[in-house]
Amino acid sequence: xxxxxxxxxxxxxxxxxxxxxxxxxxxxxxxxxxxxxxxxxxxxxxxxxxxxxxxxxxxxxxxxxxxxxxxxxxxxxxxxxxxxxxxxx
Length: 89
What we know:
By secondary structure, the chain is mainly β. The chain has one domain. The chain has a 4-stranded antiparallel β-sheet, with helices on one face. It is globular and about 45 Å long.
C-alpha cells in the first residue's frame, strides 16, 4: 500500500477538485518553495507511509529557515492536505 498527498487548497482558496502532489522544492524561489499538483492520482508522487507524507508537508527550507515572524518556514504548510491511501496493482 502506498500513500498520496491529497491537497484541498489554502486557508484563502479551496480547490474545486482535490489535487495531488507531484513534486515539491522547499528551496525554490529563495526558500518560499514551489509545488506541482495534478488532478490525476496516477501522476502523483507515491509515499511509503503516512509519516513520509507528513514529514514532507512539514519540511523547513534550508535557504530561508525562518519566516519574517520568526516561526519556522514550512512552505508546503500553506496548503490544507490529507494523506490518502492508495492500493497499488
